[in-house]
Amino acid sequence: METLYSVTVGILTACSVFLILRGRSFPVVVGITMLSYAVNLFLFSTGRLTIDGAPILGTQESYADPLPQALVLTAIVIGFAMTAYSIILAVRARGEIGTDEVNDQNNSTEGKR
Amino acid sequence: MWQQHLAILPILIPLFTALIQLLPWGNRPQPKRRAIGLAASLLTLTAAIFLLFEVRQQEMLIYQLGNWEAPFGIVLMVDKLSAMMMLITAILALPVLIYGCFSEDNLGSHFQALFQFQIMGIMGAFATGDIFNLFVFFEVLLISSYALLMHGGGKFRVRATLHYVLLNLLGSALFLIGIGTLYGVTGTLNMADMAGHIQQLDGDQAVLAKAGALVLLVVFGLKAAILPLHFWLPQAYSTTTGVVAALFAIMTKVGVYSIIRVYSLMFGPEANELALVAHDWLWVMGLLTMLAGSAGIMAARDLRLLVAYLVVISIGTMIAAFSFASTATTGAALFYLVHSTFITGALFLLADLMAYERGKTASRIVSGKKMANHSTYAIMFLLAAISIIGLPPLSGFISKLMILESATANSHSFVLWGAVLSATLVMLVSISRVGSKMIWHTLSGKPSEQSAPAGKRIAVALLLLLSLLMTVFASPIRDYTTEVAEQLDDVASYPMFVLGQQAETTP
């Protein structure tokens, strides 16, 4: 299970890094969203992976660490809000600058003309 | 009764103020919001002053939120460093807010409330003793800073903000990875408790923790704008409005604070296998940051861009000095931190004023029309320049002297001397160029008719006055920063305070 889990996190991260290195804001935003999924999964696994474990001490043989779950919840909420904001911002930048390119001086002025 | 809640007041006051300011206040809401904001800033300042005195007496204030016991619940841990940072935030906020109240806040909606949320996030980041809570407060201050950076709108601002937001989202993701790694290894999130666990690590676990520590360094380096991660800063700070840039003078210091906190408490000299993991990096990166900043100010063709690069240089100086890991240099670096926060804030506001009165030439470093209040700005600029460059007699000189003097015990000190002094020379040359172009060589003809409100000039004068005060009261301030550095060195006292105070804290 650990191998499958870590491979999943790894592939998600690799894809997100690829997307973040693109030159247009839309893939970058998608990449950052994907990275936040990878990070959430990673954070979840820091309490060690257990199957059939209640997050309460003394009720069962095996128990799960509840803290990473709380952390992931917080991270999901914050990540969600930030993603929404960055999408709005990217749309507005597209409208004002006239292009989706993240970093260019020439195209943006041409787009304005 | 209220003293026991003192530690959380600087967070609560801005929070409730912002909520109240968001209420619909009738047809002309702005004057009421301004009055509330100014009153609240004064209140925050008072609370921060009380907090400093209280901390000086009791060494450290621990506030257990919801009375959950220390390693399990979140605590606020206000030591001398936190109290100092909170006080300079509160002091900086007041003149900046006064400046903002002269119709700067009408450029976009809800400036006043966002300003208070920003202060709340910064105060929280300084106060918290829990590393995940630090992340949360980072997000609070970041999301207000995203909105504030956009304040006023415009093409360039939107683009600079987009870069800033995307970079910081990446930074937040890395922050979570770093925290997750450290939690996986140590099983705690409380910074003082984590420090104790890190001392006992060895083998694979130590390597994992080292990876976590260095990931965190990238995050804090991004916030503080250390060399390979500083490229967002000049663009963001030079395109935003002057008042926001001045407030952001404290934002890079949040990064510096986090570096000092994490790498002296958790990865300090007593962390056995992980002792001083980051300090070699900090030393090299600090020096290179100074170099990059110096290149930047030489190339800058705009006063605001130049000031932004001055921020980069000051960060480099602080980080390089901190990497010596001795009590004396840390104390000196903290003194420099206080000085540079106020003076860069003043310079951003001054650049904004000058840009307004120069009209068409704005803040570009070219000869332009005479400004309406030319002589006032000339004197202000001279004072600010003397202070930021580090010429005698103002606080810049004292703080740089302290850094150089305190470093002499170390064998690397000649490198620091060379770097700081050459950066100073470059600053002297570049700022003299600004002074002669923008103030001395003005075009003949009528002076500009646009005159900024007197209140804005007073706000800048207040910030400059702080530099003068720091010169006059250099000795007590130095005593305090030395105390801060001594407390930071005494790593063993942190777990004692944080974990050993279950009985007599909050209800």
Automatic annotation (TrEMBL), chain A:
Cellular component terms (Gene Ontology): plasma membrane
Transmembrane annotation, as ranges: 6-21, 28-51, 71-91
Membrane in keyword set: yes
Compartment(s) where it occurs, according to its Swiss-Prot or TrEMBL record: Cell membrane
Domain of life: Bacteria
Name this protein carries in UniProt: Na+/H+ antiporter subunit C
Entry keyword Transmembrane helix: yes
TrEMBL record, chain B:
Keywords associated with the record: Cell membrane, Membrane, Transmembrane, Transmembrane helix
Residues passing through the membrane, by range: 6-23, 35-53, 73-99, 164-186, 206-229, 241-260, 280-299, 306-327, 333-356, 377-394, 414-436, 457-477
GO terms, biological process: ATP synthesis coupled electron transport
Chief subcellular location: membrane
GO molecular function, one term: NADH dehydrogenase (ubiquinone) activity
Family: Belongs to the CPA3 antiporters (TC 2.A.63) subunit D family.
PANTHER family noted in UniProt: NA(+)_H(+) ANTIPORTER SUBUNIT D1, NADH DEHYDROGENASE
Protein's name in the database: Monovalent cation/H+ antiporter subunit D
Protein source organism: Idiomarina seosinensis
Lineage of the organism: Bacteria, Pseudomonadati, Pseudomonadota, Gammaproteobacteria, Alteromonadales
